[in-house]
Amino acid sequence: MKRTLTVCPYCGTGCMFYLVSDNGRLVGVEPSSSHPVSRGGLCVKGWNAFAFVHHPERLTTPLIRKNGTLEPASWDEALDLVVARLTQIQRQHGADSVMFASSAKATNEENYLLMKLARAVFQTNNIDHCARLCHSSTVTGLAETFGSGAMTNTISCIDETDVIFVIGSNTTEQHPLIGSRIMNAVRSGTRLIVADNRRIRLARQADLHLRHTNGSDVPLLCGMMHVIIAEGLADTKFITTRTENYAALAESVADWTPERSAAETGLEAADIIAAARLYAGAERAMIFYSMGITQHSHGVDNVRCVASLAMLTGNIGRPGTGVNPLRGQNNVQGGCDMGALPDLYSGYQKVSDPENRQKFATAWRVPALPASPGLPLTRAMDAASEGKLFALFVMGENPLISDPDQHHARRALENLELLVVQDIFLTETAALAHVVLPAACYAEKEGTFTNTERRVQHLCKAVEPPGEAKTDGEIICAMAKKAGYDGMSYASQSEVMAEIASLTPSYGGISYDRLAPHGMPWPCPTPEHPGTPILHHEQFTRGRGHFSPVSHSLPREQTDADYPLVLTTGRTYFHWHTGTMTRRTHLLDREEPTSFLELHPDDAARLSIRHRDRLLVTSRRGSIQTEARVTTMVIPGVVFMPFHFAEGAANCLTNNVLDPESSIPEFKVCAVRLEKLP
Ligand code: SF4
Fold first, then answer.
1. Which of 45, 183, 587 to mutate to test the pocket of ligand 1 (most atoms within 8 A of CB)?
2. What does the pLDDT read at residue 534?
3. Residue 5: inside a domain, yes or no?
């Protein structure tokens, strides 16, 4: 038996474990007892993270669509075709007629390489990844207020805090080991506030459970800030010495009395007052949030309010405090850090800055780089359906299931002249592609992932990829060579990291020899620097923290007589994202085999729906069939669906309306009606 220390491929918690293999086949997983996050534990997805690797449906050879059918091809044939078609389309329609979708499941090195391929070789800033769908509001909102869009503190700070405020995060299901750490802290005396109208697991242990209406986070947070200021609970010394624009914030929340906040949120004024007193009264308080905050048409405003609440009370820059956006996928933090974003190079360096362009052009040995920011992924779908985008290269994502308004996404993908998908299985998106490239999975390659607390961790190769599958990095570099670019030949992934470090100040001191055994947190600017567990210690990344007042806006789609219920979407404990890996893991699929919809017993009684009845769910964009789960997990008037399942796909129903600043879709609120099927 061989044991290989590596990083979990599922959530951003970033647990490390040993993959156990026997004769080149994975047979199990052993947690790392000394890892600071996993500490000898794993959730059910981690324990089963070996099971999909040898699945018989793994892609083993390139496929090219001929006469409507995907047929096996050689690597040379497939890559020649991809490069020739991309070049031809660009010649015909311009450099920005093609788009590259990077992957939060790929390594930092691979995200960097795809970013370099798009910008240096194909001369377009049309590169983005699925952070657009989960935390682009965080990147925009926290960059404006703090100067950095990342989690400010560490997961282990949970053990040192007095109060934890969880808003819009079903932590025990989405980030299970962080969720269990919060539960352990509560058992040891830490106070807990949960704001989420689902009765999630954490809510059962909370001192206060605020079941506010969907999309009313701004009224709730402004109401809390009003109370904090009115009752003299604000940290005036912190505000004076560390922040700017406080007067504007104070003015903006002056009208948000607890009574007004209660009227907008559906809560009791007394509960809003109690939450404000509990949070502001703590010596150290942490905020955790996730997509319940970000996935709104006003997601950036939600993030601004969270940041203001923390600054108002001085809960930044110390152990046991902070604003902590929990990143969804294993390497969504790294995908952002590596510049798989349309307006930023690695390390959040703006493409619009001529000095940055010159720096990267010199390092990459190209005469110039494109100056105007590219398309966000969510707007690329609109461009494709309108005939303004002609080619899309997708690495390790499944937008047909993960994007809002599935009919719109399908129309967009089918309208492309060239769709290339590089993945480990024939996903629903890959099944539509003109060319499919078989990729190695996490267990079959070396590289780094950056977890939600900015910890850069090394993953090691445990087994060989199946058939002719290659790593994403090998495929990208081979494409660059076919396109006539000789600046992407690397002897190893550590060489790629050395190039990243040379161009990316926050990764400047990171190298493979420093990452054993359990990684280090950025910023790490020099080879001697120990890494930075807590951000904004003496000053914010931008200098002074900036209070950004907001005004309240409602979700863009409201209920009415035809669509009387609010649908909200999310994930479940047993599955991950579009189910590409977890639905090919027997134990996980057995526990949660198919799509379902949660509805409150009052709504069920009114509609004569019983537990496990088959339902037709209809929104203004489409209909799907699913199974009813009658439960008090949800409040009356609200229904919940997970989005993992291609059959009964929740994203057939969701609304493609975007936050104007971050371009994140409003996954968390749309209007639906239910009909019981015979
Ligand atoms: Fe993997 Fe997240 Fe579970 Fe840890 S908590 S084992 S990183 S899915």
1. 45
2. 96
3. no
Are 446 and 461 spatial neighbours (Cβ–Cβ below 8 Å)?
yes
State the helix-helix crossing angle for 377-385 and 406-414, rounded to 10 degrees: 60
Against a cut of 0.90, is the pTM above it? Answer: yes
Q: In sequence order, what E strands does 250-296 have? A: 285-289
Determine contact, residues 487/364, Cβ cutoff 8 Å: yes
Please report, rounded to a whole number, the percentage of residues in the chain having pLDDT higher than 70: 100
In angstroms, the CA 276 to CA 394 distance is 44
Is the domain of 580 the same as that of 613? yes
With cut-offs at 50, 70 and 90, classify the pLDDT of residue 571: confident
Other C-beta atoms closer than 10 Å to the C-beta of 650 total 28
- The enclosing domain of 616 has a CATH number of 2.40.40.20
**Alpha-carbon distance 318 to 537, whole Å?**
6
Cis peptide before 517 (omega within 30 of 0): yes
Among all chains, which residue has been given the structure tokens 């004569």?
A: 608
> Rounded to an integer, what is the distance from CA 386 to the centroid of its chain?
27
- Give me the DSSP letters along 426-446: --TTGGG-SEEEEB--GGG--
pLDDT of amino acid 183: 97
Residue 560 lies in a domain: no
Q: Mutation test of ligand 1: which of 16, 30, 38, 44 has the most ligand atoms closer than 8 Å to its C-beta?
A: 38
Could you tell me if 219 and 265 are in contact, meaning their C-beta atoms sit under 8 angstroms apart? yes
Which phi and psi angles does 478 have, rounded to 5°?
-65, -40
Report the pLDDT averaged over residues 147-169: 95
Domain end, chosen from 326, 349, 373, is at 326
Distance, in Å, from the CA atom of 316 to the CA atom of 306, rounded to the nearest integer, reads 12
pLDDT digits (tens, 9 = 90+) for 2-34: 999 999 999 999 999 999 999 999 999 999 999
* Ligand 1 midpoint to CA 1 (Å): 23
pLDDT for residue 402 is more than 90: no
Q: What is the pLDDT of residue 421?
A: 97
Query: Which ligand 1 atom is the nearest neighbour of the CA of 41?
Result: 6
With beta carbons less than 8 A apart as the criterion, state whether 578 and 646 touch.
yes
Interval between CA 247 and ligand 1 midpoint (Å)? 42
Atom of ligand 1 nearest to the CA of 451: 7
Q: What is the DSSP letter of 464?
A: P
Closest-lying ligand 1 atom to the alpha carbon of residue 175: 5
Residues with CB under 6 A from ligand 1: 8, 10-11, 13-15, 42-43, 45-46, 175-177
Domain that holds residue 81: 63-132+330-511
Q: What SS3 state is found at 566?
A: strand
Cα-to-centroid distance, 218 and ligand 1 (Å): 30
**Cα angle for residues 183, 200, 273 (degrees, 5° grid):** 80
- Percentages of the chain per state (helix, strand, coil), in multiples of 5: 35, 20, 45
Which atom of ligand 1 is closest in space to residue 38's alpha carbon? 4
Total structural domains within the chain:
3
CATH assignment of the domain containing 504? 3.40.50.740
- Distance (angstroms) between ligand 1 centre and the Cα of 314 equals 31
Query: Is 169 in the same domain as 306?
Result: yes
Cα–Cα–Cα angle for 29, 31, 37, nearest 5°?
A: 140
91 shares a domain with 168: no
Atom of ligand 1 nearest to the CA of 576: 8
pLDDT tens-digit map of 601-660: 999 999 999 999 999 999 999 999 999 999 999 999 999 999 888 888 888 899 888 999
- Enter the DSSP assignment of 21: E
Question: CB count, 10 Å around CB of 398?
Answer: 21
